[in-house]
Write a structure and sequence with these properties.
alpha+beta
Length: 98
Amino acid sequence: MLRHVVLFRRKPEVAKDEALEKSLADRMAALGARIPAIAGWKFAPNELARPPVTWDYVLEAEVGDAGALDAYLSHPQHRALVADLKPYFEWAAVDYTA
């Protein structure tokens, strides 16, 4: 089983837009149920602000193997969401065997 962990935060140069951010977060939260390759999905906002080390959101996905991760990453719904996330968020990802 592979775990795919992604941290998101609003880009420093982008003004906060609560409606847009909520829409993007809602879409991220729902994505796991829409892609067959996903075995487990958690998405949550950060609860404690400790700048500059904290990020705004965390996503944890579990997939069976590297092939399943590729299927998720190349899925049209994931790609569409990434295109909408890029102008607003920056992110960092880690993939490891769970």
